[in-house]
Amino acid sequence: MPRHDAAIAPEEAARAARSDARRRQVLHAAVPLMERSGSPAVSMQAIADEAGVSVGLIYRYFASKQELVQAVTEGVLDDMARMLAETVEPEEDPVRQIAGAFATYCTVIRDSRQAVMLTYRESNTLDEVGRSVVKELEVRTVEPLRSAVDTAVEQGLLRPIHAELFAYDLLTVAHSWALKHWYFAPRMTFEEFLRSQTALLLSTAIHPEHRHRYPDLLGDLA
Amino acid sequence: MPRHDAAIAPEEAARAARSDARRRQVLHAAVPLMERSGSPAVSMQAIADEAGVSVGLIYRYFASKQELVQAVTEGVLDDMARMLAETVEPEEDPVRQIAGAFATYCTVIRDSRQAVMLTYRESNTLDEVGRSVVKELEVRTVEPLRSAVDTAVEQGLLRPIHAELFAYDLLTVAHSWALKHWYFAPRMTFEEFLRSQTALLLSTAIHPEHRHRYPDLLGDLA
Amino acid sequence: MPRHDAAIAPEEAARAARSDARRRQVLHAAVPLMERSGSPAVSMQAIADEAGVSVGLIYRYFASKQELVQAVTEGVLDDMARMLAETVEPEEDPVRQIAGAFATYCTVIRDSRQAVMLTYRESNTLDEVGRSVVKELEVRTVEPLRSAVDTAVEQGLLRPIHAELFAYDLLTVAHSWALKHWYFAPRMTFEEFLRSQTALLLSTAIHPEHRHRYPDLLGDLA
Amino acid sequence: MPRHDAAIAPEEAARAARSDARRRQVLHAAVPLMERSGSPAVSMQAIADEAGVSVGLIYRYFASKQELVQAVTEGVLDDMARMLAETVEPEEDPVRQIAGAFATYCTVIRDSRQAVMLTYRESNTLDEVGRSVVKELEVRTVEPLRSAVDTAVEQGLLRPIHAELFAYDLLTVAHSWALKHWYFAPRMTFEEFLRSQTALLLSTAIHPEHRHRYPDLLGDLA
DNA sequence: AATGAATGAGTGTTCATTCAT
DNA sequence: TATGAATGAACACTCATTCAT
């Protein structure tokens, strides 16, 4: 390998690293602004100010506001996906896997309520491509849940329910802590919400023969 | 009754009627535009063009764009509330009442998918007052469902579940046909969605002793 | 004279009278609004509301807003001219005539401060024709003062001063109670203003030989 | 001094200088337009066109049209104040000081007739703060005149007249060359106006014992 | 004679985007 | 690489004016 290449490669790597850091810097500034006010109400100038860079610089890293919004949305979903991945504890019993994953979802959503709302709100700001990326991310997010449900059904722990439907319902209900927070928050604590929803939804699905195994999950409905 | 009143009243009534017609005309034009693109992306000019009136005229009937957005959102929710009220069939059995209401919800939502998405999206465009109006409307919408659940629990037909939670879950899941349409639609028909969700959610809640009464609702899960 | 004419004439007179009343009604409403805020800030709608008539009606009596502003300005000047004419007391001594007229000017201006300011402000809203009408009115207003000065000079009661200049200075200084009210009002009462200005300006002009005749006018400067 | 400062300071200074130049460029374009037509009749677009910049740019230097109007008015008054300050010649004799200052006022006003009219017209466009700034500027402008009058009275050169009143009358009369230009201009030259007014007003005030000292100022009235 | 609904050009203002430095 | 001055199209909103009733 010629010296030339050897000299350039690290340079390029460094540049790429710096570039990435810049992107993150801008995104980091944009996220809370857009969570609070929605992207149309946030100007590029405001983002630049918040990030401590110039407007022009943002355009070096994002071709347009549209693209920045896209990146923000994806970033938010990515973060949530990462948090989920990091937090889900491995469980032997697939039912407990489901319950654990649901609890994790809810907890992550509790901590990122604004982010969840952002993904719902911005979805129509995005173009077709952007939207499909977001959808894919979401599908990937439910995936572990769905496969756990599948396994549980196969093992006869759950009744023969529609796995995709059930998994998505779990996600939807978890999201509702964010989307309907104004409704739930004055009526119950997050812990109550989590406990009740777990009992409610799992008791649906668990095969009667195996209900006795999960008194802790089913609570009053055991 | 004096002639004065007799002469004035119809005139005013006629004016009020015309005024109302104009409002509706504008709203009628604004709704699909906002459903498609979200209010920030729809200009007053575009609405005026669509309605076939001048921009100035819109401001005779709506003090600001904000107010128009508010009216659009409320109108959409009102329509849905009315459709619900008209369609819910009276049932003796509270469980069947719940199932019927859920089916109605889902059907209305199927027919007003864009409207549902609009209410989620615009909620952050609205001001505090507007938002609370929207919330109230939604609460009023779940109310019949909640009271049916309450009754069913009291009669021992359902397990001792959290009525508000369950009712809201039903609404949330119904909404998901709109919000997650891109996910569900390629995987199942609306009828399958409705049947599966009904079975899934009710099977959760129905007291084991009474499950045998509802084989039609529970399907495979009976 | 044919009966035809005899029948029509009173009708027309009545119509003219009604028409005049309408004009006055509108002007009456417009004057305080324009005095307060300046014509550009007052909408035709606001004037119509204040007058208790419809916008359309105003256009039956005034061809345009411009013309209405013109009429308002002329009306205000006319009123002041009339008040002056009514209040000036006939005096034998031309010097006392001058002093009396000046006092009257000042008093009228004190009571119509806003009107005076309006004439200064609106002068550039008017077109060339309108402006010249206003100027003519003002010239006619100073006229009695100027002729009194002329007479006084001829009779040797005043030094050989420039009559037009002096008369206009008197008007200008009288106006200054309105134009510089923010300056004078905190420093002196209107009576002090009037007394001091009279003494100051007349003492300028009165021929030394005749100063002893007017101790009441000259005060400390006698 | 660290290099850092040495490097930054000039940059910032240069930026400030450019920024100032832009402000002046815009003001320079706005002044004649507003002098001619009054601020409400001048659109931001018109100003931008006149200045050869874009509308948007104006808003980088002036937060609103209001602020621009304010700046124009203050600028005009500032200019006049500066011209006055530069032109007033120091005189030993306070009476000659007064006459000199009056002549300067009149001359400046002759050269800035439109500016004077603008200050009268725009005063009601300004908000309370803006108005008080303008008033303060005017008071500061009369100040030298007022103090000269005070001195002259103390030295017995003038009769015991009200210094503030007299000073303000001098200003008012000087302004009248602008405000009543349509009246004076066809009747006399500026020089005649200045000479006559000086004689008229000073002859008022000069103590009889000292009149003989100022035959040049008093002219025919000596 | 009188209304006021309707118009649409025009306003002040914002902001995504570009580009000379 | 980084800046921020500069652009100008677009926006929400107003209001003098017209005209069908």
Write a structural description:
The structure is a homotetramer of 222-residue chains. Chain A is mainly alpha-helical and 222 residues long. Chain A folds into two domains: 1-62, Arc Repressor Mutant, subunit A (Orthogonal Bundle); 66-221, Tetracycline Repressor, domain 2 (Orthogonal Bundle), CATH 1.10.357. Helix content of chain A is 76%, strand content 0%. The first copy, chain A, has eleven helices and no strands. Chain A has helices at 3-37, 44-51, 55-61, 65-87, 94-111, 113-122, 128-154, 163-179, 181-184, 190-205, 215-218. In chain A, helix 5 (94-111) crosses helix 6. The longest helix of chain A has 35 residues, at 3-37. The mean pLDDT of chain A is 88. Chains in contact: A-B, C-D. The A-B interface holds A 37-38, 40-41, 117, 120-121, 124-125, 131, 135, 138-139, 159-162, 164-166, 168-169, 172-173, 176, 179-180, 182-184, 187-188, 193, 196-197, 200-201, 203-205, 208, 220-221 and B 37-38, 40-41, 117, 120-121, 124-125, 135, 138-139, 159-162, 164-166, 168-169, 172-173, 176, 179-180, 182-184, 187-188, 193, 196-197, 200-201, 203-205, 208, 220-221. Chain B binds a DNA duplex (21 and 21 nucleotides) through helix 1 and helix 3.
